[in-house]
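Record format v2
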Amino acid sequence: AQKVTQAQTEISVVEKEDVTLDCVYETRDTTYYLFWYKQPPSGELVFLIRRNSFDEQNEISGRYSWNFQKSTSSFNFTITASQVVDSAVYFCVSYNNNDMRFGAGTRLTVKP
Amino acid sequence: DTAVSQTPKYLVTQMGNDKSIKCEQNLGHDTMYWYKQDSKKFLKIMFSYNNKELIINETVPNRFSPKSPDKAHLNLHINSLELGDSAVYFCASSPSHGYNEQFFGPGTRLTVL
């Protein structure tokens, strides 16, 4: 079975700081998919990014960037110049072969 | 215009009762899911349906029964509610199973007294 570990339960930063959310996954499969979702205080879950196991290119979207490293089984998420609106719980997710696993989530608090 | 809707948004009920939560998506997606989020924010998939066929059926009590009358609907029926069933239940949909991004409903907060 797959497993996703988000070792950071809570992170608190001050606005404009950069912050990295760690995600380590375990799978025996060669084909798999990784995702990040955001859950702001309002409660809804919002998709941020998807990566498949054959695409190790890092991605940048505005202040968000993702670092996918198969060698370390990690899919880390960095927010540059954090803002108060980034405060949320962030989930890393893996999927393969009808097996979907969510990490425990990292609660990010960005203080003004 | 709501893509994935759930009703009700809040549900307060007594132990032992039977209740249902409804979910509808208007995105034309083939796959729908039910998740449970506990008080510690831990999210776990319960069921998934693809074209009305059950795909994922995680280890949940058989008091929980999903029903998919058509591709746009996936309802969750819960029999003999227990205190431990109190949680937020999320419905989601995706174009196909698993490897696409999912669109989540607003959640249903179930409180069992």
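Chain B touches chain A at residues 40-45, 48, 55-56, 88, 90, 92, 97-104, 106-107 (CB under 8 Å).
Residues 4-80+89-112 of chain B form a domain with the Immunoglobulin-like fold (CATH 2.60.40.10).
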